[in-house]
Design brief:
The N and C termini lie far apart (55 Å). The chain is built from 5 helices and 6 strands; from the N terminus they run H-H-H-E-H-E-E-E-E-H-E. Strands 1-5-2-4-3-6 form a 6-stranded mixed beta barrel. It is an alpha/beta fold and 191 residues long. Bound molecules: zinc ion. Zinc ion (ZN) binds next to helix 4 and helix 5.
């Protein structure tokens, strides 16, 4: 049983690492996920050996191998997580390097309801439907302009606030209320 539990844990770690690899283009993450998968296979093979073996010495050895493989798989998962974080940081730094600082702007949030927009369910001033984590409103700047705010890249698709005040689209009125009002450094992203 100990070997089976180790193999299950190794496979879980390998699945998690594969999940990270699927979200990135980093070859480091990919390599770590492959390592975790190999470790999980080793753990499973050792678990099979442990369940087939008749002598206690072989079982003990197989358990030890399975547990070592589990530790390796979990280490590989940690490597994958670290490589993924490094990739994200590098991407953000690259974006910032080509960004132009616009200023510390006022931030508020809105949604598609009648209270925020007069009538509910309207398209944006640019004609597209607004989407969360993407659409912002601000006057004095072209539609389609990309703004980096607190690590997220938004697109100016709507109007309603003057230049220097970014209104961020959210899925619900309660989210918009909860966001309240704030300020942040706003960068223009050139692509
Ligand atoms: Zn609303």
């Amino acid at each position: 049983m100990a070997a089976k539990a180790a193999a299950d844990a190794a496979e879980y770690a390998a699945d998690e690492a594969r999940g990270y690899a699927d979200e990135t283009e980093s070859s480091d993450v990919e390599a770590a996920a492959e390592n975790a998968a190999l470790d999980a296979e080793n753990a499973r093979a050792a678990a099979d050996l442990a369940s087939d073996a008749n002598d206690s010495r072989t079982v003990a050895m197989a358990v030890e191998i399975a547990e070592a493989a589990q530790a390796e798989a979990e280490g590989a998962l940690a490597d994958a997580a670290e490589a993924k974080a490094a990739e994200e940081k590098a991407k953000e730094e690259e974006m910032l390097a080509s960004a132009e600082y616009l200023g510390n702007f006022t931030l508020t949030a809105y949604c598609n309801c009648a209270r925020c927009c007069g009538t509910a369910g309207n398209a944006t001033a640019s004609g597209v439907m607004p989407t969360s984590n993407h659409t912002v409103a601000m006057g004095g700047i072209d539609f389609g302009t990309k703004l980096l705010i607190n690590g997220t890249v938004y697109t100016v698709e709507d109007r309603g606030t003057p230049y220097g005040h970014v209104d961020i689209f959210m899925d619900s009125h309660s989210e918009a209320l909860q966001f309240g009002m704030g300020s942040a450094d706003v960068y223009l992203i050139r692509e």
